[in-house]
Amino acid sequence: SRRAMGRAMGLAGLLLGLFLVPAVLVSTSLRHGVPLTEPETTRELAEWEPVSGTVREDSLWPLPQWLRTSPRQLQLAPGRFQLVHGAGSTAGPDCGLLQDAFRRYIEYMFGQSRRRTWGRRPPGGLTGPELWELQVVIEAPDPGCNSYPQLASSEAYHLTVTEPVAILKADEVWGALRGLETFSQLVHEDDYGSFLVNESEINDFPRFAHRGILLDTSRHYLPLKSILTNLDAMAFNKFNVLHWHIVDDQSFPYQSIYFPELSDKGAYSYNHIYTPTDVRVVIEYARLRGIRVIPEFDTPGHTQSWGKGQKDLLTPCYSGERPTGSFGPVNPILNTTYDFMSKFYKEISNVFPDAYIHLGGDEVDFSCWKSNPEVREFMKKQGFGIDYAKLESYYIQKILDIVSSYNKGYMVWQEVFDNKAQLKPDTVVQVWMGNNYADELSSVTGAGFTAILAAPWYLDYISYGQDWKKYYKVEPLKFSGSEKQKKLLIGGEACLWGEFVDATNLTPRLWPRASAVGERLWSSRNVTDLQDAYERLTNHRCRML
Amino acid sequence: AENEPPSGTPCTQLLIFVATPGCDGFPSLDSKENYKLSVSEDSMLLSADAVWGALRGLETFSQLVGRDENGTYYINNTEIVDFPRFPHRGLLLDTSRHYLPLRAILETLDVMAYNKFNVFHWHIVDDPSFPYESFTFPELSKQGAFNAMTHVYTASDVQTVIEYARLRGIRVIAEFDTPGHTLSWGPGAPGLLTPCYLGKEPSGTYGPINPTLNSTYKFVASLFQEVSTVFPDFFLHLGGDEVDFTCWKSNPKIHAFMKEMGFGEDYKKLESFYIQRLLDIISSLGKGYIVWQEVFDNGVKVRPDTIIHVWKENSTPYMEEMANVTKAGYRALLSAPWYLNRISYGQDWIAAYRVEPLAFKGSPEQKEQVMGGEACMWGEYVDVTNLTPRLW
């Protein structure tokens, strides 16, 4: 009703009346300005008000690149509003990915509403301007409905919300998914329970193409449900990579088809494994949300659990002349090692459709190698002297070659670069070591390699209070380098290592702290206002719940 | 070592023997929680002086029962004699910074029972919100709760908590913290809080409870009259911490009062004046009280059976405070090293475990004054989405 709109406008209008969002774009000349926040909405972070004051009506997260809203509000009727394919779209009803997304977003927006009657608009009796539907128009000849998202996928979208029909245009379905999320964030309820959306126009695309979350399912097993819930949360924050650190020292939950003993002997128990079906479920669930799944099978270190099911894979450690009974990293001197790895990575390349596999290569402890006389002998033969980094590189290179032969690209932790292995030009180096990561970024990109940043975003390091702010404040491009170098930093990842994390505490520990990283990686460089972020984030968090 | 297959008659009963009746009473500071547990092939016997000990013994018994790879439940021959070292073992939950739905509180009480905690310190109201539905002053929650319909504890909720706790041998000690930490009281009780001044004019903001008005004491008496009937435990926690004097200092009427009373510029005296009258009110209601350490630090005259709650880690090393409090003859509770809301990375349980409450210089009589302690989970960054994994 008009009165309802008036009332709603009284509050919302005041807040949104002069709402202009800043966005400085690299390329086009689009309008930009300074956010004008009404004094009433500015809250002292230090003080708490006893009763909640005026709440921002729409809290977008991450903040789009360019946004213009007007105070004019349109109503949506849960029983009538539809998400549809627009005329001229290269995607249609046979696009399963979009169909699934349509249903999902209707549920997110109106799920709480109890109105279930499906009906046409009552004739006559105008109740106010209504938004009938959102039309999704995919423009690229191949929309991507049946493909997997890639690093180069387009996630850009253009959204116009005007009476009576809103239009969401995107090159590919991935952009449509991002746009649907944003649209769902624009729809809000007024005091009377009416669903409203402000007339707006949004032009959006991610600043960085690789925006990931690392989950560790080796230190603690994470049940499938937990991983899927996390993928949902990632989609709310426009993350597009799940870096699945699936195995490590502690346990090997990945059920391999060629080498079933690996999980038979290496998993915590038969109940703590990911069957091929589980893995497929994760990959498809992620795909439907525009999320790539990059598995990490970290070697040669971090492999204790591999040795349980694969004899002779790990290096036996020695004390003097005798083996101690304990094992170290993968044994790089045996041909059997490479036979195994060759077959293993063949399976992995088939099971995981992404163009990239993460090969690990971090924290290799040389002491076991040093203790083993055969390894020492090998070092001599190869002319490595006592430089075990050379042995490590020797190993890694062979793995890199194996993986390349399966037409996969690879990601590695920074040590592989630091220890001077010969990397293919399209290797992605993940910078994780905390001290001086800016220098490392300069080195990696200076050498011509692509990099992603994780070092300041180790979210497992929880601390008391609002630590999201320190993650938000990180500026990934703050390192010395040319423009060309800066382009090689393709994104970053928030990492939740599992030493102290399992399904009982994963969600509250990761979210909404990771949301800070999400905005940093998606939104424009000058979206840095902590006060504004705080307000949007508190609302975004409640919405995610 | 292999387990022998179970032989003889499988155990069918745990006999429970309680010496003194008291099923329908409430646990108290003096309750006896000792028990003896005897498990052998012939019999399984749990004996306790009081039902509270039986509860503790049942928990222990449940922890002794194991299950082997065949799924058979078993228990080893066991003899246990057990009693708590400290009689007050508490947990503080803060339902003002974030509202905690009833089920979160009840779940916490369950886990407290698994860990033999016996005091639920309910920090129920504070600056940000007033969720307690008072029948004497319904406006307090109507105006002061985050949402008066959804974010409140009705009288029935409160009774549910008290009974749920009682059935687990847990005392419920409510804290209505005054004179500071009371911003949420203001909207529902106009005239209660001190108006702060900016120069000659009221600034529009408020400070602690106004200790200079008779109406204040009338209000406080009525409210605590209600609270003493609602909460059956002998003790009430009266707060008394972190009173910010700036607002009082800014208010000319307070100034005048200070002069009149001969307090000079010492606002601690004004704080004491309030606290003392509050304590008298509580005593007249037949209740005992626990207060935060500032009440002791600021030299307020308190009853000899007052319990002082030591919480500050920084100003004075808390062990020194424990020594001072007990030396002055008061009983003490320790919380300072156990602020579990201050989460950090890794196995921070170790630091909490290593605390030795009696590691201060004092006579054996002083040490006897330490009643125990409380783990505190302040709610600034805690709500139902993360309470359980943060606390346990």
Automatic annotation (TrEMBL), chain A:
CDD domains xrefs: GH20_HexA_HexB-like
Signal sequence bounds: 1-26
Cited Pfam families: Glyco_hydro_20 (PF00728), Glycohydro_20b2 (PF14845)
Entry keyword annotation includes Cytoplasm: no
Residue ranges of domain Beta-hexosaminidase eukaryotic type N-terminal in the record: 60-186
One Gene Ontology molecular-function label: beta-N-acetylhexosaminidase activity
Gene Ontology terms: cellular component: cortical granule; lysosome; membrane
Cell location: Cytoplasmic vesicle, Secretory vesicle, Cortical granule; Lysosome
Function: Hydrolyzes the non-reducing end N-acetyl-D-hexosamine and/or sulfated N-acetyl-D-hexosamine of glycoconjugates, such as the oligosaccharide moieties from proteins and neutral glycolipids, or from certain mucopolysaccharides. The isozyme B does not hydrolyze each of these substrates, however hydrolyzes efficiently neutral oligosaccharide. Only the isozyme A is responsible for the degradation of GM2 gangliosides in the presence of GM2A. During fertilization is responsible, at least in part, for the zona block to polyspermy.
Name of the protein: Beta-hexosaminidase subunit beta
Gene field: Hexb
TrEMBL record, chain B:
Keywords: Disulfide bond, Glycoprotein, Glycosidase, Hydrolase, Lipid metabolism, Lysosome, Signal, Zymogen
Entry's localization field: Lysosome
EC class name: hydrolase
EC code(s) of this entry: 3.2.1.52
Pfam families: Glyco_hydro_20, Glycohydro_20b2
Boundaries of every Glycoside hydrolase family 20 catalytic domain copy: 86-392
InterPro entries linked to this entry: Beta_hexosaminidase_sua/sub, GH, Glyco_hydro_20_cat, Hex-like_dom2, HEX_eukaryotic_N
SUPFAM superfamilies: (Trans)glycosidases (SSF51445), beta-N-acetylhexosaminidase-like domain (SSF55545)
Catalytic activity: N-acetyl-beta-D-6-sulfogalactosaminyl-(1->4)-alpha-L-iduronyl-(1->3)-N-acetyl-D-6-sulfogalactosamine + H2O = alpha-L-iduronyl-(1->3)-N-acetyl-D-6-sulfogalactosamine + N-acetyl-D-6-sulfogalactosamine; a ganglioside GM2 + H2O = a ganglioside GM3 + N-acetyl-beta-D-galactosamine; N-acetyl-beta-D-galactosaminyl-(1->4)-beta-D-3-sulfogalactosyl-(1->4)-beta-D-glucosyl-(1<->1')-ceramide + H2O = a beta-D-3-sulfogalactosyl-(1->4)-beta-D-glucosyl-(1<->1')-ceramide + N-acetyl-beta-D-galactosamine; a ganglioside GM2 (d18:1(4E)) + H2O = a ganglioside GM3 (d18:1(4E)) + N-acetyl-beta-D-galactosamine
One GO cellular component term noted in the UniProt record for this chain: membrane
GO molecular function: beta-N-acetylhexosaminidase activity
Beta-hexosaminidase eukaryotic type N-terminal domain ranges (all copies): 28-64
Entry annotation: catalytic residues: 242
Keyword Oxidoreductase: no
UniProt record, GO biological process: carbohydrate metabolic process; ganglioside catabolic process; glycosaminoglycan metabolic process
Residue ranges of coiled coil: none
Tree of life domain: Eukaryota
Subunit structure as annotated in this protein's UniProt entry: There are 3 beta-hexosaminidase isozymes: isozyme A (hexosaminidase A) is a heterodimer composed of one subunit alpha and one subunit beta (chain A and B); isozyme B (hexosaminidase B) is a homodimer of two beta subunits (two chains A and B); isozyme S (hexosaminidase S) is a homodimer of two alpha subunits. The composition of the dimer (isozyme A versus isozyme S) has a significant effect on the substrate specificity of the alpha subunit active site.
Family: Belongs to the glycosyl hydrolase 20 family.
UniProt function note: Hydrolyzes the non-reducing end N-acetyl-D-hexosamine and/or sulfated N-acetyl-D-hexosamine of glycoconjugates, such as the oligosaccharide moieties from proteins and neutral glycolipids, or from certain mucopolysaccharides. The isozyme S is as active as the isozyme A on the anionic bis-sulfated glycans, the chondroitin-6-sulfate trisaccharide (C6S-3), and the dermatan sulfate pentasaccharide, and the sulfated glycosphingolipid SM2. The isozyme B does not hydrolyze each of these substrates, however hydrolyzes efficiently neutral oligosaccharide.
Protein name: Beta-hexosaminidase subunit alpha
Species in which this protein is naturally found: Nycticryphes semicollaris
